[in-house]
Design brief:
This protein is mainly alpha-helical and 113 residues long. The protein has five helices and no strands. It has one domain: Cytochrome c-like domain (Cytochrome Bc1 Complex, Chain D, domain 2), CATH 1.10.760.10. α2 crosses α5. It binds heme C (HEC).
Length: 113
């Protein structure tokens, strides 16, 4: 009886521990959600055509080899005007960069067809 209670308690605790990803890799799906909320008014996010022409389309950033992951992280963490500084968390910056980079993968896949 006592053992069973302890086992149940252990099981309960094990399922309650939040799953922390081992790497701090960005989540592209979350990045897309953030981009559609915060970036879409200026940048072309995906194929939504409501952006200004002064800001580069995210797909264009993904296709440009000069815009490396490190470069994008640096820029989004510390942008210069006219882009506002959103004070995003490091995780959100990673998510956004993962999303932007994923657009490049799609493009390469299409080009390879
Ligand atoms: C108010 C308009 C505006 C918003 C909102 C905005 N940006 Fe920008 N962004 C710009 C402009 C304009 C540039 C080009 C600046 C330049 O070339 O000097 C830019 C440039 C960038 C660049 C670098 C481009 C390069 O070629 O070096 C990245 C990356 C970027 N934005 C990401 C984002 C992300 C991610 C968001 C949302 C969290 C966002 N931007 C929201 C206006 C905006």
């Amino acid at each position: 009886m006592a053992l069973r209670t302890r086992l149940l308690a252990a099981l309960f605790l094990a399922t309650c521990v939040p799953v922390v990803p081992a790497s701090a890799a960005g989540d592209a799906a979350e990045g897309e959600r953030v981009a559609n909320r915060w970036c879409v008014s200026c940048h072309v996010v995906g194929d939504k055509p409501m952006a200004s022409d002064k800001a580069p389309a995210f797909a264009a950033l993904a296709a440009d080899p000069a815009k490396s992951e490190g470069y994008l992280k640096g820029w989004i963490s510390n942008p210069h005007p006219p882009m506002p500084n959103f004070n995003l968390t490091r995780q959100t910056v990673d998510d956004l960069v993962a999303y932007i980079r994923s657009l490049g993968e799609g493009k390469k896949a299409i080009q390879n067809k």
